[in-house]
Amino acid sequence: MSPNAPIVTITKVRADVPADNLIPDLLGLRAPSPEALGLHGKDLDVDELERDLQDEAGQSHREQRNDHPDQQANDLLTATAPIRGRGVPPIQRTPLGQLGQQATSVVTDLGYQLHSRRRTNSNELSHEYDSSSGDLQGALHRAMVYSGVCRRPFLPCRRLPELVNKVSVAAELKRFQSITERIQTHFSPSDSYEELANLARQICGLTKQSWRAYPEPVYGNVARRPPSQEKTYRKILTILLLIERPSRIRHFIEAEVCDADLPLQRVETNNFFKSKPWTLGRKSSPNVPLPCFSTWRHATVKAFEATQWTVIAPFLGQDERKLALRFRIPESAVLPFTKWERVHQRGGSGEVFRAEIHPAHHDFDDFLTPQASKKHVFAVKRLFAQDEAKFRHEFDVLRTISKNPHPHLITLLVAYEQHGSYHLVFPWAKANLLGYWQNHNGHPNNDAATACWLAEQCAGLASGFATINKYPTLSSDSMFNRLVPCKSNTKRNSKMLLRRASHCSGPRQLHCRHGDIKPENILWFPGHHSDGTPSIGTLKITDFGNAELNTSAVVPWRHAPTSPMYRPPEADLPLSDSVIRYLSYDIWGLGCVYLEFAAWCFGGWQGIEAFLNRRWALDNRYLKFHTGTFFDVHNDNEGTPMARVKQGVHEYVNEMRQDSKCTHFFHDFLNLVCEQMLIVEHEGSGRMGAASISAQISEMVSRGKQGAKYFSEPCSCCRSGEEAP
Question: Which domain holds residue 351?
């Protein structure tokens, strides 16, 4: 077929083609009859077809005077410049001591290369569509899935190679060629069956083709080509089928506009009559219109632009180091979330949604819990602030933590931005700790197993804090430099901290403080034992929206945000010219949670409420409100504000000590919390570090497993009237 020959289109085709008559014809065994192809004059809208041809012929004549730049030269220029719209920006392999010098990669190709890598590494197999029905367009429509976010359809990426294969494509090409032969006999000679079969293989990427010289795409710090670099036109053909223009696939192949070029973007034209105000072009060449659309009517171009989003739903994944990536998703893209429900849970920095991601559009199977694996459920946090700096801050903190995975720290899977909003995707939890106490286990079993689980989780939470409190790094990247300055109200302290950071070389430590410790920010993930029986589960720390990374373990108190009810005493004391122990803030909040944990174990949800009532009083900072803080502030004889643990806290702890449920473990556990965690810091004393707390509770767990009585036998010293300090 001549490259300048007009392309004939139809709008209605018979689809009842017998397989036995069609498939052998495509293989060149015999010439198919019109009846075998389902071609009958009464099925064709000849008038509409002729109008379409006349319109396109006129359009082609009007636009022949507009000479486009040489496409090959433009591709060469494109190869020498960074391409923002073609995947992950390149990062060269760097020495170990320089890891992280460049900013985190932003994925802009909707995960196209990530999916190619996953498909190659996993040897993903697909079952080819049986084209005997002859209704490929109908099969594509039936395979569509609706997004729960925007209620628009998308084609799962796994279905594309199943439906659009060499046999079904060849059948579709033959069908349309036979139709054009019956209507326009004066066109150039038709392709042979072998030529159509070769064209089908080319569309499916089964022939060797030269690839334009694009920059090397990468994942993380490993610079190399994706494993799958063949040109395919499956998505292009699918779009043409959906808008009923499949015979125009040749124009795209001649212009080398393949699946990797999607999505195409608008390019303004200098059309004198304004019949076509814009056409389409590559994102890599934003001002160059593609010649394959030169003869198209504007309505057909608009249909192509709108339909292309149906076949390029994003594929969400991580880099090769299993670290989260940032996706920049266009506004028109269809998110592959089959369900999207707002959860009645709003934190200080965002709201949470329950999302079911189509299994073909993510690679987070390793992070699915047993309860979430059947429906591929994940938690999506949408940040309230539409500020990229705040979004990048939380993303950086979570990604830094994920470099050293911990069983009691939440793992960030992916982050994306769309419509000016920022989202973080996490594994789905059954509830937070407060919801677990209230709704899932309001009456816990008073046995050794429950006490042992409490001890293991408390040791794990402290271990998680110890991990983030001192995060070793060799990084000198832009994120590290953004986090170095710890401003102080005194010039001396400020200069000292900056000097210490600037002269630091070799291994360094980033100190991370969570800043919002409370039961609502600890998630409960149900689990299973090794034998498959259900276990109580695992607790994980989440919501790092208020977290801070610093190079110093001390900061000015004004720069340390806290949770109102679980804030430490020093947050209310007038220490404007002093610095505080940066990491001890979280230890106070963790001690508060530990006491509530013990109250739940002794009295269930009613015990939690009773403990809150003992602490309920007019807040020192918020004088118009009552809160359940664990301390109050009073003035000493000289009028100086002093903080102390509330009397109600002491009384409730003493009641737990004297309870018959207070075992040897709880005696030691309450001692640890009251003597090493819930203390008012001043010169000469300080709270115990997270690592030491974890070690002491872990020792309690070991002692209990060696002798069951440690978790089950009541402690006689408690019943004798010993009081908490």
Answer: 336-427
